[in-house]
Model the fold of this input.
Amino acid sequence: MKRRLAAAALALLLTFSLTACGGENTPPEIKGVQDQTVQAGTEFDALSGVSVEDAQEGDLTAKLVIDATPSIDFTGGKAVIEQAGEYELVYTVTDKGGLTAESYATLTVTRQTGDAAVYKQFDFSAPQTVDDHGWTAQISGGADASGELKQGAYVFDIKTPGGNDADIQLVKSGLPLKAAEYRIAAYAKATQETSATIQAGGQNAEVTIGTGIAPLELDFTSTGTGSTDVVLNLGQSPAGNIITIDKIEIFEISGKETKTPVYTGGPELTVTAGDGASAQANGGTVEISGYPTDGGVWSIKTDIGLPGVSIEAGEKYYYSFSLKAQNAQSGECLVESASQADANRVNFNSFAAGAGETVTVTSTFTAEQAVADPVIRLQIGAPSDGVTSNQIQISDVQFGTVSGDLKTVKTIDAFTPFGRTTANAENPDQPWETFNGTDEGAEGVGTIWTENGKFFYRIDQGGVTDWHNKLICGYNGNPLTLEGDSYYTVEITVKADKNVSCGFFLNTLGGWDPRISETLDITTQEQTFSFTTTDTFITDMDFEMLFQFGSEQTAQLGEVTIELSNVTIYQMPVM
Done:
């Protein structure tokens, strides 16, 4: 890296000096240099696609000199490399005036393999069973309507609504109760805005179903054991309406808790920036003068110090602080070790603030491991559209312990053909799942289904960070297991009804160590993407394939549907 910076500085100095003297000469320009991967024992042509142009001398490609670390013996730019590994290539050219240009690339040499063979090809034409979780559609009176499970949701097609509110219902009978507080949240949308009611536990709530998906909520209290029916009355709908319900969440909240602060005060901020970003701490303010030119959501790290605090495994903690952003900003909020980062992390959260908006960022968690040097770490990357700088003010920091027996049990009734948390156990050949930010109190709603031999992922609400809208293959009890001593190629054929981008990762389960990390720019025209691993592993390992869509841009798209017609994994065993 120092060599690269020194070379760039020298080229800039020479260019400035010559320009000041009349502009007689400009440095040559090297084009076409890029990172490449080849197999050991095959010929590598380092000059393929590479050229040098000079404004004064024309084509200087023949003058290129290529150095490699570790060393490679090139003949005419070509070499057969037998030793697998990574090689740093430096392309250098000097013109007659003494101006030098350099360009850099990484050559990855993989071990020799046999022919590629299909390791796993997902069959999206296989029949799928949808769990209704005990919810049933009830149509009565003069209503001409239907309610059925399709396209990953409970869908009501209301041609004529009937005479009253209760003529069209979605009902869950006999929900068990105990002495606790309850909340029902049904995530619904409609083609035409309409009124509806929710009934449960002797309570009734008037709600509005809009054209964008949002939770329809009802709170009630149970004083003892028993049961209740949960009813969504949809009979007020106008004719010709379609109401879609992606999921219904049921919260059971019992007990009490006490929060005891162990640290309060103004923030002690430490800021680091990478990937071309520029930022610093100024008191309680993070001043971002430049966002990353490369990289992503982890590029600007702001640590809120917690002096004197240590975290014990098995104990419950909380934190809160106020955040105000000059320009709209989102990011990740973590509690982890200052020195060990994600290797010693106990909480994962996110934040989002509009321009000039003050938000309270808060979370309660039970630490799964001890942390001797905890910080609240904000990870900031992509800016909002058109934003090049920002100021983020942090104040009113509080961190403490939580005692008591308060307990929240959350049940998510989602209507996908792959189940919910049991998807992998029940569908071993189709270990697909979607994770929504709203599953953990953030933003993001989506659902999945198969139809006509294709796989669909519909984002009904985009979240602002990448974990808010995730499509996952290989999850919980049925991971995607790949055999050792092999390379793998993942082939994906995909399109969408709107242009949308996502991160694609082939990640090892149990931590963050992706063996493939790429970006998919999905368009309305079908494309096939192909990505190959560049290292092997000693033994069989469990993986997950992640398609992470959440971003500021995704959040602005509204509803978007992604269509996968092929996902195939090829194996190349090492010879």
The chain has three helices and 43 strands.
